[in-house]
Amino acid sequence: MKPIVGKAEVALEYPDKFYVGTFERTGNLDAHVDETGVSLSLYHLGGEDVRKSVRLHFDYALFAQILRSLAKTVAAEPRTDVAHRDTLRDAARALYVALKAEAVRHKNSGAGKMTPEEEVLLLHVLE
After folding, report:
1. DSSP string covering 54-69, please?
2. What pTM value is reported for the model?
3. CA atoms within 13 A on the CB side of 55
């Protein structure tokens, strides 16, 4: 798990109930892939009165759809938030590099190599 570097708000709405919670720098994040998809978990640890967690799992097709929807939204919006766009672009690039390296390793049975620049970018994201 890694500390949360920003803020997340989670809302869950049912016909007769509404739950909302925030997760900030005092919380932790776990994000990973497994055989069936992408898992995201947010945790706020502490006593019973403040402890909370949210866990989401998306199959790969749905997560890919989410990424494509984000891409369309970014393309349609004016370039007003350059700092956040840079952060998102760097993270998306690191995911791409990791996926590309894994595909090369799989294709070449472990013989694939990342460029030094790709390794540094991936290491920064993994920190």
Report:
1. EEEEEEHHHHHHHHHH
2. 0.72
3. 2
